[in-house]
Write a structure and sequence with these properties.
This protein has 219 residues and is of the alpha/beta class. The protein has a single domain (16-216), classed as Vaccinia Virus protein VP39 (Rossmann fold). It is built from 8 helices and 7 strands, in the order αβαβαβαβαβαβααβ. It has helices at 16-27, 45-52, 65-77, 89-92, 133-143, 160-169, 186-190, 192-197, and strands at 35-39, 57-62, 83-86, 98-103, 144-155, 173-183, 207-216. The chain has a 7-stranded mixed sheet with strand order 3-2-1-4-5-7-6. The radius of gyration is 16 Å and the shape is globular.
């Protein structure tokens, strides 16, 4: 997957979580001809990857208009056809089902009451980092067709056990299929004191673990 993608200001830059999820998609050996949803698409990196690896149709959704515009331009530059939708993913695709869902949602814990501001919307996700993860995990069983698979990436700081529990409560088979450790980026480095005070990291910790959760709807 090419890292050279057009990105408007404020749009999430593809980085280790993007590449970890893309690798998990490849390793999952998802069948060709599938209908794929890329939730929180950003630059469209994962949607383009899905289209290039055999998906029959790819729907890419983002709350940000500039992200959707970036994904549109990147898909056009690569000759890839995407269905692009702007809005809250739990609303704009309600009532539809997909064979494969990939999601790299905002998941960074934040103590900033103005975290919904446009400049931070691509990563900030409330006090527990779950303002997008919670509704997405709860809705996942309704979004997946029978036999479908979802792959979700987020930080271990944002409660993988909670995600697994929500997905399993919805009747999905869910497990962690990939992990990696990465250094804190600028956002987490600035918040390390607050994260430590909350008991989310150890004193002096400068690395976070990323996880990919796979959820399958078997019935």
């Amino acid at each position: 997957m090419s890292a050279m993608l057009v990105r408007a200001p404020g749009v999430y830059r593809p980085q280790p979580d993007t590449w970890l999820l893309a690798r998990a998609m490849t390793e999952a050996a998802l069948p060709p001809g599938t209908r794929v949803l890329d939730a929180c698409t950003g630059t469209g990196a994962l949607a383009i990857h899905a289209a290039r690896t055999g998906a029959a149709a790819v729907t890419a959704v983002d709350l940000s208009r500039t992200a959707v515009a970036s994904a549109w331009l990147n898909s056009r530059l690569r000759g890839v056809r995407l269905e692009l939708l702007c809005g809250d993913v739990t609303r704009v695709v309600a009532g539809r089902t997909f064979d494969v869902i990939v999601a790299n949602p905002p998941y960074v814990p934040s103590d900033d009451p103005a975290a919904s501001r446009r400049s931070a919307r691509a990563w900030d996700a409330g006090r527990y980092g779950r303002s997008v993860l919670d509704p997405l995990c709860v809705m996942m069983p309704r979004l997946l067709d029978i036999g479908g698979t979802a792959l979700i990436v987020h930080s271990a700081l944002s409660g993988p056990t909670t995600s697994l529990g929500q997905l399993r409560d919805g009747g999905l088979k869910a497990t962690v299929v990939a992990r990696t450790m990465i250094p804190f980026g600028p956002v987490l480095a600035r918040r390390s004191g607050w994260l430590c005070d909350r008991g989310l990291i150890r004193p002096g910790q400068q690395h976070e673990e990323l996880v990919v959760i796979r959820a399958d709807r078997t019935r």
